Amino acid sequence: MVSKGWKWSAGLIVLLFFLFYKIPVIQLDFGESIYYLKKDNFRLKWIHSVEKEEWIEWYERQGQELLLTKTSFKTFGAGVPSSADEVRTEDGYVTMRVDKSFPEMNLTVSENAHTTIESGGKNLLLYEFTEDYESVLISVQYLHFWEYMGGESL
Protein backbone atom coordinates (compact mmCIF):
# COMPACT_ATOMS: atom_id res chain seq x y z
CA MET A 1 0.00 0.00 0.00
CA VAL A 2 2.86 2.37 0.72
CA SER A 3 4.06 1.89 -2.86
CA LYS A 4 0.70 2.93 -4.36
CA GLY A 5 0.48 5.95 -2.06
CA TRP A 6 3.98 7.03 -3.07
CA LYS A 7 3.22 6.74 -6.79
CA TRP A 8 -0.06 8.62 -6.38
CA SER A 9 1.67 11.41 -4.43
CA ALA A 10 4.44 11.68 -7.01
CA GLY A 11 1.86 11.81 -9.80
CA LEU A 12 -0.05 14.56 -7.99
CA ILE A 13 3.12 16.60 -7.53
CA VAL A 14 3.94 16.30 -11.24
CA LEU A 15 0.37 17.30 -12.15
CA LEU A 16 0.46 20.33 -9.85
CA PHE A 17 3.81 21.33 -11.30
CA PHE A 18 2.38 21.35 -14.83
CA LEU A 19 -0.77 23.17 -13.68
CA PHE A 20 0.98 26.02 -11.89
CA TYR A 21 4.50 26.35 -13.32
CA LYS A 22 4.81 29.02 -16.01
CA ILE A 23 7.46 29.10 -18.72
CA PRO A 24 8.94 32.48 -19.75
CA VAL A 25 8.83 32.97 -23.53
CA ILE A 26 9.36 35.74 -26.05
CA GLN A 27 5.98 36.33 -27.69
CA LEU A 28 5.31 37.81 -31.13
CA ASP A 29 1.73 39.13 -31.23
CA PHE A 30 0.52 40.02 -34.72
CA GLY A 31 -3.03 40.76 -33.52
CA GLU A 32 -4.77 37.84 -35.18
CA SER A 33 -1.99 35.33 -34.53
CA ILE A 34 0.55 34.80 -31.76
CA TYR A 35 3.87 32.95 -31.98
CA TYR A 36 6.55 32.09 -29.42
CA LEU A 37 10.31 31.99 -29.89
CA LYS A 38 11.93 28.79 -28.65
CA LYS A 39 15.14 30.59 -27.70
CA ASP A 40 15.74 33.28 -25.07
CA ASN A 41 17.43 35.63 -27.53
CA PHE A 42 17.07 36.94 -31.05
CA ARG A 43 18.55 39.34 -33.58
CA LEU A 44 16.32 41.93 -35.22
CA LYS A 45 17.48 42.90 -38.72
CA TRP A 46 16.16 45.45 -41.20
CA ILE A 47 17.25 47.78 -43.99
CA HIS A 48 17.35 51.40 -42.81
CA SER A 49 14.95 53.57 -44.82
CA VAL A 50 17.41 56.46 -45.30
CA GLU A 51 20.84 54.83 -45.48
CA LYS A 52 19.62 51.68 -47.29
CA GLU A 53 22.03 49.64 -45.18
CA GLU A 54 21.37 46.70 -42.87
CA TRP A 55 20.92 47.32 -39.14
CA ILE A 56 21.13 44.54 -36.58
CA GLU A 57 20.04 44.62 -32.94
CA TRP A 58 20.69 41.84 -30.40
CA TYR A 59 18.00 41.17 -27.78
CA GLU A 60 17.71 38.68 -24.97
CA ARG A 61 15.03 37.86 -22.45
CA GLN A 62 15.99 39.17 -19.02
CA GLY A 63 13.32 38.46 -16.44
CA GLN A 64 10.10 40.09 -17.65
CA GLU A 65 11.85 42.43 -20.07
CA LEU A 66 13.68 42.47 -23.38
CA LEU A 67 17.29 43.59 -23.08
CA LEU A 68 18.83 45.28 -26.13
CA THR A 69 22.47 44.27 -25.69
CA LYS A 70 24.06 45.77 -28.80
CA THR A 71 23.36 47.31 -32.19
CA SER A 72 25.36 47.19 -35.43
CA PHE A 73 25.14 49.42 -38.49
CA LYS A 74 27.30 50.54 -41.40
CA THR A 75 26.68 54.29 -41.49
CA PHE A 76 25.90 56.97 -38.93
CA GLY A 77 22.56 58.69 -39.40
CA ALA A 78 19.02 58.92 -38.08
CA GLY A 79 18.41 56.68 -35.08
CA VAL A 80 22.05 55.97 -34.23
CA PRO A 81 22.70 55.94 -30.47
CA SER A 82 24.54 59.08 -29.41
CA SER A 83 26.72 57.32 -26.84
CA ALA A 84 27.73 53.83 -25.77
CA ASP A 85 30.00 52.19 -23.21
CA GLU A 86 31.73 50.13 -25.88
CA VAL A 87 32.13 50.87 -29.59
CA ARG A 88 34.04 48.73 -32.07
CA THR A 89 34.21 48.14 -35.81
CA GLU A 90 34.15 44.71 -37.42
CA ASP A 91 33.45 43.53 -40.99
CA GLY A 92 32.38 47.01 -42.07
CA TYR A 93 29.91 47.45 -39.18
CA VAL A 94 30.05 49.80 -36.22
CA THR A 95 28.88 47.86 -33.16
CA MET A 96 27.77 49.63 -29.99
CA ARG A 97 27.04 48.02 -26.63
CA VAL A 98 23.66 49.36 -25.46
CA ASP A 99 22.28 47.27 -22.53
CA LYS A 100 18.86 48.94 -22.40
CA SER A 101 15.74 47.14 -21.14
CA PHE A 102 12.23 47.40 -22.57
CA PRO A 103 9.00 45.96 -21.13
CA GLU A 104 7.84 45.37 -24.72
CA MET A 105 8.55 46.46 -28.26
CA ASN A 106 5.98 47.58 -30.82
CA LEU A 107 7.65 47.03 -34.19
CA THR A 108 6.32 48.18 -37.56
CA VAL A 109 6.93 45.49 -40.18
CA SER A 110 7.76 46.18 -43.83
CA GLU A 111 8.74 44.03 -46.77
CA ASN A 112 10.62 47.04 -48.14
CA ALA A 113 12.76 47.12 -44.97
CA HIS A 114 13.10 43.30 -44.92
CA THR A 115 12.13 43.21 -41.23
CA THR A 116 13.54 39.90 -40.00
CA ILE A 117 14.08 38.11 -36.71
CA GLU A 118 16.88 35.57 -36.48
CA SER A 119 16.59 33.09 -33.63
CA GLY A 120 17.86 29.58 -33.18
CA GLY A 121 19.48 29.55 -36.61
CA LYS A 122 16.22 30.48 -38.37
CA ASN A 123 15.39 33.66 -40.25
CA LEU A 124 11.78 34.70 -39.66
CA LEU A 125 10.68 37.12 -42.35
CA LEU A 126 8.17 39.09 -40.28
CA TYR A 127 6.64 40.75 -43.35
CA GLU A 128 5.38 37.31 -44.42
CA PHE A 129 3.32 37.07 -41.20
CA THR A 130 1.38 40.33 -41.66
CA GLU A 131 0.54 43.14 -44.08
CA ASP A 132 3.03 45.90 -44.89
CA TYR A 133 3.30 48.58 -42.20
CA GLU A 134 1.31 46.58 -39.66
CA SER A 135 2.89 46.07 -36.27
CA VAL A 136 3.98 43.18 -34.11
CA LEU A 137 4.11 43.45 -30.33
CA ILE A 138 7.17 41.66 -28.97
CA SER A 139 7.15 40.96 -25.24
CA VAL A 140 8.03 38.46 -22.55
CA GLN A 141 5.07 36.39 -21.39
CA TYR A 142 4.73 33.59 -18.87
CA LEU A 143 2.73 30.62 -20.16
CA HIS A 144 1.48 27.48 -18.52
CA PHE A 145 3.19 24.40 -19.89
CA TRP A 146 0.07 23.33 -21.83
CA GLU A 147 -0.28 26.82 -23.38
CA TYR A 148 3.32 26.67 -24.55
CA MET A 149 2.92 23.16 -25.95
CA GLY A 150 -0.32 24.13 -27.73
CA GLY A 151 1.00 27.43 -29.11
CA GLU A 152 2.84 28.04 -32.34
CA SER A 153 6.59 28.18 -31.80
CA LEU A 154 9.00 29.64 -34.29
Features:
seven-stranded antiparallel beta sheet
Structural summary, described in words:
- The protein is of the alpha+beta class.
- The protein has one domain (23-76, 83-153).
- The protein contains 2 helices and 12 strands, in the order H-E-E-E-E-E-E-E-E-E-E-E-H-E.
- It has helices at residues 2-20, 145-150, and strands at residues 22-29, 34-37, 41-47, 54-62, 65-73, 87-90, 93-102, 104-108, 116-119, 122-125, 135-144, 152-153.
- Strands 6-7-5-4-3-9-10 form a 7-stranded antiparallel β-sheet, with no helix packed on it. A 5-stranded mixed β-sheet has the order 8-11-1-2-12.
- Strand 1 and strand 2 form a beta hairpin.
- This is DUF1850 domain-containing protein.
- It comes from Oceanobacillus halophilus.
